[in-house]
């Protein structure tokens, strides 16, 4: 089997476009040339990769498998080019990160602000994703790193645990639960809840725990950040379950009671996911190092 890297790049462009014509345009070749190269690629591999009709293109199962492998191969080629650049440093490059809600809204902005200020030639694409999509993205090569909280089932990936956080309950100072040292999840379900927007990792996780108790979460309002959650809590709109690191930080400027949750699932390990950390470009390895240092500082504060 002979597969050309240019053909793999063309295939990715077409697979990620609604039509062969638009994919060909991204590859800067004519639709006729693109069609001929895809046909040759199919002959080389020995199976059909795309169905083409007037509505666009649809990948076959073999095409979906090739897309996964092609992403990994091309990303690794890009890594190799970066590593063998004439001036190999960690001051330039691009990093794509899929991360959970807590990472995107809580600690990654602080880490990236310092990291990027010291490296003006580096760009970052930070995207919030659900846990399953983070794992899938690292596996299929559509992201360089994944940042996740909680148990990780990811065969074929390296998992580097870098810090620990806990989920807690935040209430206003005059709330009936405010003087409690700890509460069970079942005890808080009768109160209006403030949560992050639909589809966020934390909301999905919390709803799963509530469903296991045979209840529904009484949501009063959904917001976009932990800061907004805490402001709503402070004025008595409702109560909220959120990471302790966020709750304690906002407690410094807001009138909040932070109460321990007496549940086995409240402690959550934060992890970095990668296919092979040692094979990553130097700039990405430097960011992983910054995450590790962040975890060490968090551990010292706790």
Q: Can you give me a brief rundown of this structure?
A:
With 302 residues, the protein is an alpha/beta fold. 45% of the residues lie in helices and 24% in strands. The protein has 11 helices and 12 strands.
Can you put this structure into words, describing what you see?
It is a single chain. The chain is elongated, with a radius of gyration of 23 Å. It has helices spanning 5-15, 20-26, 31-45, 61-83, 101-117, 131-139, 185-188, 201-212, 226-234, 244-251, 282-301; strands at 50-53, 56-59, 92-99, 121-128, 145-149, 158-172, 182-183, 193-196, 219-223, 240-243, 256-261, 267-274. The strands form three sheets. Strands 3, 4, 5, 6, 7, 10, 11 and 12 form an eight-stranded mixed beta sheet that branches. Helix content is 45%, strand content 24%. It starts with a helix and ends with a helix. With 302 residues, the chain is α/β, with parallel strands linked by helices. It is built from eleven helices and twelve strands. Helix 5 links the parallel strand 3 and strand 4 (121-128).
Helical content, roughly?
40-55%
What does the overall shape look like? Answer: elongated
In terms of per-residue confidence, which ranges show pLDDT below 50 for 5 or more consecutive residues?
Answer: none
Number of helices: 11
The number of distinct β-strands equals 12
Strand percent estimate? 15-25%
Structural class by secondary-structure content: alpha/beta
**What number is the mean pLDDT?**
86
Order of SSEs: HHHEEHEHEHEEEHEHEHEHEEH
Termini separation comes to: 55 Å
* Largest sheet: number of strands, sense, barrel closure: 8 strands, mixed
Backbone CA Rg = 23 Å
């Amino acid at each position: 089997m002979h597969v050309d890297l240019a053909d793999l790049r063309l295939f990715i462009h077409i697979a990620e476009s609604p039509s062969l014509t638009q994919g060909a345009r991204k590859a800067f070749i004519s639709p006729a040339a693109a069609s001929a190269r895809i046909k040759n690629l199919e002959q080389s591999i020995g199976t059909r990769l795309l169905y083409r009709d007037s509505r666009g293109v649809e990948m076959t199962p073999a095409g979906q498998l090739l897309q996964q492998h092609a992403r990994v191969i091309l990303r690794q080629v890009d890594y190799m080019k970066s590593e063998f650049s004439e001036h190999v440093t960690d001051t330039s490059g691009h990093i794509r990160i899929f991360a959970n809600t807590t990472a995107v809204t809580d600690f990654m902005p602080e880490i990236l602000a310092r990291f990027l200020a010291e490296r003006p030639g580096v760009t970052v694409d930070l995207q919030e994703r659900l846990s399953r999509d983070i794992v899938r993205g690292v596996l299929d090569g559509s992201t360089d790193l994944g940042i996740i909280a909680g148990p990780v089932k990811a065969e074929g990936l390296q998992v580097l645990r870098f810090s620990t956080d806990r989920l807690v309950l935040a209430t206003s100072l005059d709330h009936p639960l405010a003087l409690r040292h700890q509460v069970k999840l079942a005890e808080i379900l009768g109160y209006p809840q403030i949560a992050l927007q639909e589809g966020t990792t934390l909301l999905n996780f919390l709803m799963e725990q509530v469903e296991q108790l045979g209840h529904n979460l009484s949501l009063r309002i959904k917001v976009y950040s932990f800061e907004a959650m805490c402001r709503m809590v402070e004025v008595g709109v409702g109560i909220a379950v959120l990471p302790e690191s966020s709750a304690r930080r906002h407690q410094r400027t807001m009138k909040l009671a932070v109460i321990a949750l007496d549940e086995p699932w409240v402690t959550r390990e934060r992890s970095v996911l990668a296919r092979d950390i040692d094979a990553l470009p130097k700039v990405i390895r430097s960011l992983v190092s910054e995450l590790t240092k962040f975890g060490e500082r968090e551990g010292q504060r706790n």
